[in-house]
Amino acid sequence: MRFALWTGALLVIAAIAAALHYWSPHATLRITTGPFGTDAQRFMGALITEVAKDHPRVRLQPVQVDSLAASSKAIESGDAELALVRSDVSPPSNGQTIAILRRDVVAFVLPPKSPIDSIGKLSGKTIAIPQGRLQDVNAALLDTILSYYNVAPHDVKRVFLSADEMIAAVHGRHVAAILAVGPVGPGDVVGAVTAMAKGTAGTPTILAFSDADAFNKRFPAFESYDVPEGAFRSRPATPDDSVTTLSVTYRLVAPDTMLSLVAGAIGRTLFTSKAKLVALTPLASQIEAPDPDAKNPILPVHPGVASYLNNGEQSFFDELQGYFYLGAAALSILGSLATIIMGRVKTGRMREEQKRIGQLIQIADQAQGADADTLEALEHALHQVIGEAVTSAGRSGSDSTTVLAINHARYALAARRTFLRSQGGRSSVQAAMSA
Fold it and tell me: Which of 74, 215, 222, 379 is 20 to 30 A away from residue 105, measured at CA?
């Protein structure tokens, strides 16, 4: 019975401990970083450093992946708890947004006085795409855009070129436009505008998407974006006026199973420590909070982040307090269960002690009229009871009442043996043999 009770107690304790460990805000989170030496890898390194300072109970463990698609897959497969995801590249079905890390403009850079004023007019043309790690991803983006405007992808030729090759291709009029995807600032779009300007010795233009909002309804991965005047070049300004185009977003994404407290803590670090992150990498300057009320989101905002954004610091600390209350309640339940189990164990031991004391008293009573053979049997029974008492004392300490009962039984046996010797008593077996 004691073994069963102890086993039950250990199982209960193990179950509660496992639950507390699973639900505790203390966590090691695997985060995808992208290939070594990339901007993504540098940014994630800065984030890991800042989270370690801001939340010692949350440790980010980097997981290197080779592509954006692999990063998304890591969330779906459970190989990572945080990942850098581009909204148009295989967004994970179970993913939720912690923060928007960067917004990249989709820019079709055109030569001066280009007759192309819509995507449909790209049919039969050649498009240059900057060479690099994301060239295939951006080619797939082009196919998506063409499909929306009912242009067959095979009707638009695409070539992947370096910066110098783009200048030469533009100068030789081998390409009708350059498709670049990048931030408003240093990056592929600025490089494409520069190449177009050098190749044509004129001021490039940016193709406008007047139906960007409608495009978003069909393809939520793309959002409407208003590029301000001179965003890609100041003199002469490119664009020369505000222009509406498409954008894709790089997001820090977590699975929908992540605790709200943990997601809120990561989001809070990103939004409140932006200046510190910028000091580590300029890429952090583009961090922005996702819109909790966005309609038709490709990657909805995690509830923990939404709560923090809607209610501020108080919601974060209320959530934290809630986990402390949960932990206290679990510990209280654990303590009560332990008390009940120990009480039952103690009751079982007391019953065993009472049983042994009864046996010892019975041995003492039987010894008063016992012959030599019976006395030997009682002596053997006494040794068995003493052995059980010693074993029990090794687990729970000696009992003074049991010690007194043992001494009483020993005295009774010794007294009877002395009496039989003084009377020259013989055992019944011996008497029968002499007869």
Answer: 74
Spatial neighbors of 387 by CB under 8 A, at least 6 apart, are none
Instruction: Pick the more confident residue, 107 or 319.
Output: 107
401 φ, ψ (degrees, to nearest 5): -65, -40
**H or E element that contains 143:** helix 135-148
Cα–Cα–Cα angle for 197, 117, 186, rounded to 5 degrees: 40
Dihedral sign for Cα atoms in the order 339, 345, 349, 355: positive
What is the DSSP secondary structure assignment for residue 122, as one 8-state letter? G
The tokens of 77 are what? 């497969």
Q: Tokens 């961090």 correspond to what residue?
A: 287
The confidence score (pLDDT) of residue 41 equals 80
Of all residues in the chain, the percent with pLDDT exceeding 70 is 77
Residue 32 has pLDDT above 80, yes or no: yes
What is the C-alpha separation between 8 and 2, in angstroms, rounded? 10
What does the alpha-carbon distance between residue 84 and residue 90 come to, in Å, rounded to a whole number? 12
Structure tokens at 215: 């495009």
Q: Is 397 exposed, middle or buried (0-12, 13-18, 19+ CB in 10 A)?
A: exposed
Q: What value does the mean pLDDT take over residues 301-309?
A: 91
Q: Please provide the DSSP assignment of 146-160 as one string.
A: HHHTT--GGGSEEEE
Closest to 286 (Cα-Cα) out of 36, 37, 39, 59: 39
pLDDT digits (tens, 9 = 90+) for 313-362: 554 445 555 555 555 556 566 666 666 666 665 666 677 777 777 777 77
Whether residue 58 contacts residue 29, with contact meaning beta carbons closer than 8 Å, is answered with yes
Neighbours of 409 (CB within 10 A): 26
> What is the pLDDT, as a whole number, of residue 355?
76
Q: In sequence order, what are the residues at sequence separation of 6 or more whose Cβ sits closer than 8 angstroms to the Cβ of residue 146? A: 119, 122, 152, 153, 155, 156
How would you label 234-258 residue by residue, b for 16+ Cβ within 10 Å and e otherwise?
eeeebbeeebebbbbbbbbbbbeeb
Maximum CA pair distance of the chain?
142
Q: Where are the beta strands (DSSP E) in 121-208?
A: 126-130, 157-161, 177-182, 205-206
CB 298 within 8 A of CB 247: no
Q: In 3D, which of 90, 76, 271 has the Cα closest to residue 263?
A: 271
**Could you tell me the pTM of the whole model?**
0.68
For residue 289, is pLDDT > 90?
A: yes
